[in-house]
Design goal:
Elements: E1 2-6, H1 8-22, E2 26-30, H2 32-36, H3 40-49, E3 54-57, H4 60-68, E4 76-78, H5 85-93, E5 97-100, H6 103-116, E6 120-126, H7 140-148, E7 153-160, H8 170-185, E8 192-194, H9 198-202, E9 211-214, E10 235-240, E11 243-247, E12 252-253, E13 259-260, E14 265-270, H10 288-299, E15 302-305, E16 308-311, E17 321-324, E18 335-338, E19 350-352
Parallel strand pairs: 1-19, 2-3, 2-9, 3-4, 5-6, 6-7, 7-8
Antiparallel strand pairs: 1-10, 10-18, 11-14, 12-13, 14-17, 15-16, 15-18
Helix pairs in contact: 4-5, 5-6
């Protein structure tokens, strides 16, 4: 048995902190990557119970899944701009807020809306340095044409993505403000304005504006949160200890990388490995010290059994992992608890409790 356990109380705690930091700004709950591994529908329902009424996704099918799950009236922003007709038809049929990140995506959206006989709602994306899409500040005429010449599209918002992990966002915000000034100087309404994601919000930068887009912070996994942010981790892995037995000194453990036991060792086996996502984590930073920390973490990886730490022997296996339980009070059938990144979890059921 193995499962990924999400604690409802911790998610509610984090949501309250996020709402306090956001103040009067609208909060879009970002549910990309199956809600960062937490489950699109499960997390959306829990957040709605806590007063979150706006959502953002990156796949048209996720909009449909939310609508079918009962999110009939909630605004859902599609964060990725697209010219794909099938996706645009699905987005408009599900009343999504589309993203326009280029002149081509704007005209494609306008054409599909005209064909369907509907008025599309859209937010315009500005590229202030991330480089993944959006209008540049150096092309104001192309940008303004979106507001002027798309009769079947209602522009209700303007936003940008901040490179918050890179540090200071002051330059990006200055670029974004210059674009907003250009729009307003042309006597056009930029609508709901938003820039901050989880990192910018939790770092206390002045980027909230009219709305914020928050994803990983709900799970207590915001990578650049400052100390004292009070966010809590909300999930952990659990697996039953399958096998416990003594192996003699000199016996080997592992497959791809062999570890030779230096003493008689009581070895336990848990049925999780790197193919399930155990031992895999996103890189926090680059450079020597980040490499050293990752190496140290691999050498010191452990699980907890009956409140006792059991160190992983050698490398995490593909489907099973060996742990040293020589000095622990435990046996087969006991529960092992471990940390892992939910976004990499595969083949492990999610449980909310």
């Amino acid at each position: 048995m193995k499962q990924l356990v999400f604690e409802r109380s911790a998610i509610k705690h984090n949501t309250a902190i996020i709402q306090e930091r956001a103040g009067s700004a609208v909060i879009f709950a970002v549910l990309v990557g199956d809600a960062y591994g937490a489950g699109l529908i499960e997390l959306a329902k829990l957040l709605r119970e806590e007063g979150i009424a706006h959502f953002a996704v990156e796949e048209a099918e996720d909009v449909t899944r939310l609508r079918q799950a009962g999110f009939a009236q909630e605004p859902i922003l599609m964060l990725r701009s697209t010219t794909n007709r099938d996706e645009l038809v699905e987005l408009l049929n599900q009343r999504a807020i589309c993203t326009i990140g280029s002149y081509e995506t704007g005209t494609a959206l306008n054409a599909v809306a005209e064909e369907l006989g509907v008025k599309a709602e859209a937010h315009v994306l500005i590229d202030t340095g991330m480089g993944f899409g959006g209008f540049l500040s150096s092309e104001p005429q192309k940008l303004l044409s979106i507001y002027h010449y798309l009769p079947n599209v209602a522009i209700t918002g303007t936003y940008t993505h901040l490179c918050a992990y890179a540090g200071d966002t002051t330059r990006q915000m200055a670029v974004f403000q210059s674009v907003l000034d250009t729009i307003q100087s042309a006597h056009l309404n930029p609508g709901l304005v938003h820039a901050a994601g989880s990192s910018a919000l939790m770092n206390g930068t002045d980027t909230c504006l009219g709305a914020v887009r928050v994803g990983s912070a709900f799970l207590g996994a915001c990578r650049t949160q400052k100390r004292g942010s009070q966010l809590r981790p909300v999930y952990h892995g659990e697996a039953i200890l399958d096998t416990v037995r003594w192996l003699p000194k000199g016996h080997t453990v592992g497959n791809e990388v062999i570890t030779i036991l230096r003493r008689p060792t009581r070895v336990g086996i848990i049925p999780v490995g790197y193919q399930h996502g155990f031992g895999i984590q996103r890189a926090r930073k680059s450079g020597f010290w980040a490499f050293f920390k990752a190496w140290r973490d691999r050498r010191n990886r452990f699980v907890t059994i009956n409140g006792q730490k059991a160190k992983v022997i050698g490398r995490v296996g593909a489907l099973e992992t060996a742990i040293d339980v020589t000095d622990l009070r435990c046996g087969e059938g006991d529960l092992a608890i471990f940390q892992m990144d939910a976004i990499f979890a595969h083949g492990i059921p999610r449980v909310y409790q």
